[in-house]
Design a protein that fits this description.
- The structure is a single chain.
- This protein is of the alpha/beta class.
- The chain has two domains: 260 residues, Aldehyde Dehydrogenase, Chain A, domain 1, CATH 3.40.605; 187 residues, Aldehyde Dehydrogenase, Chain A, domain 2, CATH 3.40.309.
- It contains 16 helices and 18 strands.
- A seven-stranded parallel sheet has the order 11-12-13-10-9-14-15, sandwiched between helices. The protein has a six-stranded parallel sheet with strand order 1-6-5-4-7-8, sandwiched between helices. Strands 2-3-18 form a three-stranded antiparallel sheet, with no helix packed on it.
- It is globular.
- 51% of the residues are buried.
- The N terminus is likely disordered.
């Protein structure tokens, strides 16, 4: 069994991981998980281990065998994963269990997200070969596996991230060790088990996808420090992303966002309002790409708000209600209160004594730029609207509110120059024009999907090629047939 490096770097990582997971534990307030399909750990059964080192060793052995399989077998295994997820019983169970265990989001939207992953996550077709030929021969550059990848997954999109990473990482020829968020462990472990069953039915090497039954500080440290884990992929908040980036390993970090929306005077206001509310309310605003604050040119702001109400927004205007809402959703440090993240608009309004119509999807407020709802990523369907004098001021403030995360920005405009200016100024990984935010991950927009969007480390919307190494193979003085 491989030894864990206990040098100074490992100690620093251990301290950072401990801090991150202690903050998670304090966040708590998750509902009881009775009835969920958890595991207490028959060691190694269906990829579930009680010990992280044994899980890593098993994944390493599996990957060594997997590396010898032809590409068509990888395709078979990935298709088996897609088919398993598309089964109505599995699709619903994953979605219902995620909501029940985490207390976040809603079942219908999670079903849509899980199916989106099955349908639109790239497989081996993403692994493009480059070739160079000339008088000196032929060189090809191909994408090869790293080996064992350690993946940390969030509570906001637990099943979607496990599925998306599994498809991409296996397509690239790797095996993967998951360290799921403690407040999503049961549904994550259940999914890993089902993935292993689907792969076993096609005689895949056992333990290509593994995890531990009880995620902990110790197991996460072990995974990040283990010499057999050649790459780390973290999907979560800024702390955990900084932690994996400090390990010295190849790291992909998918961090936080605070996506702004700009609406100028040339926008089709009715459609902009509909799209903004649809994106903001999707899965109760859990996706990091979702609309978090709006900057509207004063000339059209009132009409925009009027149409937002038509499409399911409830505007809070009473000062006492606004203060109660602020105290409800922000903690003592001014950050999003964990117990409110991913809750519905009706739940949040009910907590401040406001009875809303069942059609209400989002809460909107009219406020200034410095309001904490503008500055903090709330991940709940509360949408602050800031009035601005002109589009240039809107773009300036939107860039500031995005805080340099370079994650996602949205704009509604019919002016190409304004759209271009916003795109250049924001420098975000995803920029959606004249549509809801989720168009940026393939829902009603062109392109593939992912739930690991790596802004901090620059890979962008990750796919199979993100989890592969570039290798050059040179044939000298041969096979140039031009």
């Amino acid at each position: 069994m491989a030894e864990i490096n206990k040098g100074e770097n490992a100690v620093a990582i251990e301290n950072m991981v401990r801090k991150v997971l202690e903050q998670i534990a304090v966040g708590g307030n998750a509902p009881a998980t009775s009835g969920l399909s958890g595991f207490t750990g028959a060691n190694g059964e269906n990829g579930i281990f009680t010990d992280m080192e044994e899980a890593i060793a098993a994944a390493h052995k599996a990957q060594q065998e997997y590396a010898l399989y032809p590409m068509r077998r990888r395709d078979d295994f990935i298709e088996a994963i897609r088919d398993m997820v598309r089964r109505p019983d599995i699709l619903r169970k994953l979605s219902e269990d995620a909501v029940a265990e985490t207390g976040m989001g809603n079942v219908d939207d999670k079903m849509q997200k899980n199916k989106l992953v099955a349908d639109k996550t790239p497989g081996t077709e993403d692994l493009i070969t480059d070739a160079f030929s000339g008088d000196d021969g032929l060189s090809i550059v191909e994408l090869s596996p790293y080996g064992v990848i350690g993946a940390i997954t969030p509570t906001t999109n637990p099943t979607e991230t496990v599925l998306c990473n599994s498809i991409g990482m296996l397509a690239a020829g790797n095996s993967v060790v998951f360290s799921p968020h403690p407040r999503a462990k049961n549904v994550s472990v259940f999914l890993v088990s089902e993935l292993n069953k689907a792969l076993a039915a096609l005689d895949a090497p056992p333990n290509l996808i593994v995890t531990v039954a009880e995620p902990s500080i110790k197991s996460t440290e072990a995974m990040m420090n283990h010499k057999l884990v050649r790459m780390l992929v973290a999907t979560g908040g800024p702390e955990i992303v900084r932690t994996v980036m400090s390990t010295g390993k190849k790291a992909i970090g998918a961090g936080a966002g605070n996506p702004p929306v700009v609406v100028d005077e040339t926008a089709i206001i009715e459609k902009a309002a509909m799209d903004i509310i649809a994106g903001c309310s999707f899965d109760n605003n859990l996706p990091c790409i979702a609309e978090k604050e709006v900057f509207a040119v004063e000339h059209i702001a009132d009409y925009l708000i009027f149409n937002m109400k038509k499409f399911g927004a409830y505007q809070v205007t009473d000062e006492n209600d606004l203060e109660r809402l602020k105290k409800l959703v922000l903690n003592d440090k001014g950050h999003a209160e964990t117990s409110c993240i991913g809750k519905s608009a009706q739940y949040l309004l009910g907590k401040i004594g406001v009875k809303a119509d069942p059609s209400v999807k989002a809460v909107i407020i009219d406020c200034g730029f410095d309001h904490p709802f503008v500055q903090e990523e709330l991940m709940m369907p509360i949408l602050p609207i800031v009035r601005v004098s002109d589009v240039d001021s809107a773009i300036d403030l939107a860039v500031k509110a995005e805080h340099g995360f370079r994650h996602t920005a949205i704009m509604h405009s019919q002016n190409v120059s304004n759209l271009t200016n916003m795109a250049k100024r924001s420098q975000t990984t995803i920029f959606v024009k004249n549509g809801p935010s989720f168009a940026g991950i393939g829902v009603g927009g062109e392109g593939y999907t992912t739930f690991t969007i790596a802004g901090p480390t620059g890979e962008g919307l990750t796919s199979a090629r993100s989890f592969a190494r570039r290798r050059r193979c040179v044939l000298v003085d041969g096979f140039n047939i031009r």
